[in-house]
Amino acid sequence: MNILLNGKGYSSEKISTVKELLMELEREWSIELSGAVVLVNDEIVKKDRWEATEISENAEIEVLSFVSGG
């Protein structure tokens, strides 16, 4: 599947839901995304819907994760 992730092309054969995408990104990016904000085609997907929300081919997805620091 090909999607637009944070403005860049991304391809994976392993993802079909928002939850699967985030699990894959956690491994690739070595970052915890359990508190992330996810938008699919400019619609916010609440955390309780990540597992049920299907990702379609060419979807535009934004994953925002907030980090504290100083």
From TrEMBL:
| Descriptive protein name | Thiamine biosynthesis protein ThiS
Q: Which Pfam families match?
A: ThiS (PF02597)
Show the NCBIfam families listed in the entry: thiS
| Recorded superkingdom | Bacteria
Gene3D superfamilies in the cross-refs? 3.10.20.30
Tell me the InterPro entries matching this sequence. Beta-grasp_dom_sf, Mopterin_synth/thiamin_S_b, Thi_S, ThiS/MoaD-like
Q: What is the lineage of its organism?
A: Bacteria, Fusobacteriati, Fusobacteriota, Fusobacteriia, Fusobacteriales
